[in-house]
Amino acid sequence: MKNNRQAVALEYGSHSAPVVTARGDAELAERIIAEARRRGVFIAQDPALVGLLGQLEIGESIPPQLYAAVAAILSWAYWLRGMVPGDEKRAQGPALDG
Which of 5, 17, 80, 88 could form a disulfide with 61 if both were Cys (CB 3.0 to 4.6 A apart)? Predict the structure, then answer.
């Protein structure tokens, strides 16, 4: 059975827009997700968004067209952690998998 899983990790807080810090398919995606879980990083599952983010290069900022979608996930991650914008400098950012 083929593993079609994809994962993209984003960092936000020290950048003006979220930046892709890791991306991968299949086994690499599983390792990215496992590392995110190990570090207590929020994981959202959105295959369509991961497909778009997976086209970006490591170190590349997300494009303005994806700001709203990523902002919705970030706001959910803030809420789940009891955080407010600005707290991200003291916590890890979310990871996405699809």
Answer: 17
- List the CATH number of the domain containing 74: 3.40.1690.10
Total count of domains within the chain: 1
Q: CA-CA distance, 12 to 22, in Å (whole number)?
A: 13
Q: How many CB atoms lie within 10 A of CB 83?
A: 15
DSSP code for 69: H
Cβ atoms 21, 8 nearer than 8 A: no
State pTM to two decimals: 0.78
The string of DSSP letters for 30-57 reads HHHHHHHHHTT--EEE-HHHHHHHTTSP
The boundaries of the domain holding residue 57 are: 6-97
